[in-house]
Amino acid sequence: MINRQINTIISLTLAVLIGLIYSAGIKESAAAVMRVEGKNMIVDQAGRILTVDHSFKRIISLYGAHTENLFNLGLDNEIIGVSRHETYPPQALKKPVFSYREDPEKFLAARPDLVIIRPMIDRGYPQFVSRLEKNGITVISLQPQNVEVMFVYWQILGLLSGRQQQAMNMVSQFETAVSDFKMLTDGKTTKKRVYFEAIHSKMKTFSPDSMAVFALETAGGINVASDAKAVRNTNIAYYGKERILSHGQEIDVYLAQSGVMNKPTVTLIMTEPGFKTIKAVDEGEIYLIDEQIVSRPTMRLLDGIYNIGKILYPVDFSNKNPTKIYHESMGGNH
User: Fold this and answer.
1) Distance CA 296, CA 66 (A)
2) Is omega for the bond preceding 112 within 30 degrees of 0, making it cis?
3) Which of 20, 170, 319, 328 is the most buried (most CB within 10 A)?
4) Helix (H/G/I), strand (E/B), else coil: 282
5) Which of 53, 78, 95 is the last residue of a domain?
6) Does a structural domain hold residue 97?
7) 3-state secondary structure at position 253
8) Do residues 283 and 158 lie in contact, with contact meaning Cβ atoms separated by under 8 Å?
9) Which domain holds residue 4?
10) What is the pLDDT of residue 82?
11) Given this model, what pLDDT does residue 132 score?
12) Looking at residue 193, which CATH number applies to its domain?
């Protein structure tokens, strides 16, 4: 599987590359790494095409997942700024804080050679982005929505920073850990059926190809909302109370992400009108899980898999320690 993902690095003429970007919709949905006429090139999610002929040394990250992955690649010295509300890793808290809502002059004064953003900043603050680019700062917009694209995203970060081998190691270590997790429940004839809440107030769940559902299924859970449709190319899907309740007696475990996007409590879920007809709610099988370990494209997705596994199959997951796996991978990449 690793080779299938990494072989998105292909040889194309520049004319063919540009044609593919727009005909395949890469501009709107995905990023790519390619080798064109002997040169490494990337395409970001805004359709920017960048020839990478050097490693960037002064990087500002405006998304927590970017920050976490850059530290995982061993770029402590190269990271000169991070976004607000950073919580992980601890060394990120020591970096200067920047915001796309601030005057761009603060960015210009810091002299970054690369600012990594995500698509919502491109869409919502085009003048800010344009100002950086007009002053010679490279801007790249990335935010993968599923695990397959996450591998390409890690490769892009590795290429931008000159840490291609470390990025390859991340992919390899992640896939090895996922394989080990799957083996814990592969032999089970009966698996837990789960509703995974994304936003309680709007009765939204996760799209079937999201990282959160990947974590759930890797841990051996069955997603009862597998027919959910993504909202506006995001990893969130509207489901609605009626459809949730239609699965009520099938739901063994009610799982809800907790964080900035969703701030539920067990009591809130238990007292939601009509929810007592849900098997998991009636039996008290309601669990909250940190959104940062199930919704972000980082190595900590392994911790999300482990935490879900411990909820669903505590005996099977009792001897599997992803914290050890994660820190081994961090050590291997530095």
Assistant:
1) 9
2) no
3) 170
4) helix
5) 53
6) no
7) strand
8) no
9) 1-53
10) 97
11) 97
12) 3.40.50.1980
pTM higher than 0.85, yes or no?
yes
Domain count for the chain, please give it: 2
Sign of CA dihedral 117, 119, 125, 130: positive
Do 267 and 244 touch, CB atoms closer than 8 A?
no
Distances (CA, A) of 288 to 67, 99, 267, 293, 307: 25, 30, 11, 12, 10
Residues ≥6 apart with Cβ < 8 Å to 173: 299, 325, 328, 329, 332
Helices 322-333 and 64-72: crossing angle in degrees, nearest 10, is 70
Q: Which of 28, 53, 78 is the last residue of a domain?
A: 53
With beta carbons less than 8 A apart as the criterion, state whether 64 and 86 touch: yes
- Res 325: pLDDT: 59
Distance separating alpha carbons of residues 220 and 184, to the nearest angstrom: 8
- Average pLDDT for consecutive 10-residue bins of the chain (334 residues)? 43 42 45 78 91 95 97 96 92 96 95 96 95 97 92 95 95 92 92 97 95 97 95 88 97 95 94 97 97 95 95 89 58 43
Q: What angle do CA 79, 82, 84 make, to 5 degrees?
A: 170
Q: Report yes or no on 141 lying in a domain.
A: no
- Taking each continuous run of H as one helix and of E as one strand, the counts in the chain are 15, 14
Report yes or no on 278 lying in a domain: yes
Tell me the residue type at 232. R
Q: How many residues does the chain have?
A: 334
